[in-house]
Specification:
22% of the residues lie in helices and 39% in strands. The protein is built from three helices and seven strands.
Length: 147
Amino acid sequence: MSQEIECYRGVVHPWLCDAMGHMTTRHYTAMFDDGSYHLLAALGFGPDMLARRIGFADVNLNMNFKAELGVGDLVVVTGGVEKIGGKSMITRYTMRNLATGDVAADLVASTVQFDLAARRAIEVLPEIRANARRLFPEAEIAAGSLV
């Protein structure tokens, strides 16, 4: 995936670290989660969809840790869409140490468009597909149903 947008910036605070001075895995996850909201917003997910009771649900996360982050490290997360199918999408996020450029971790997420009232997966909305095509032209994006 070559196209990515910036999704998150932060700092590793002492209270995010373990006894060895390294950021704990739960905080890597939290930073990626915060970044996912920004990526989804770029795709068009906003308050209007929540008002319509439409959301997203992560169904699989695969995280790889590449380099340790410690107290005071500045962090930037970039992300993008790899694929959109009928009801789901695959996104990839990369977390880097801003000072060194080193990849600290990456995450691949499988996420479904979700009807919050019916509690079931639904077709990815056309506007989400259109925005993904515009932002990530190399992504594999299915046409969606004609319904």
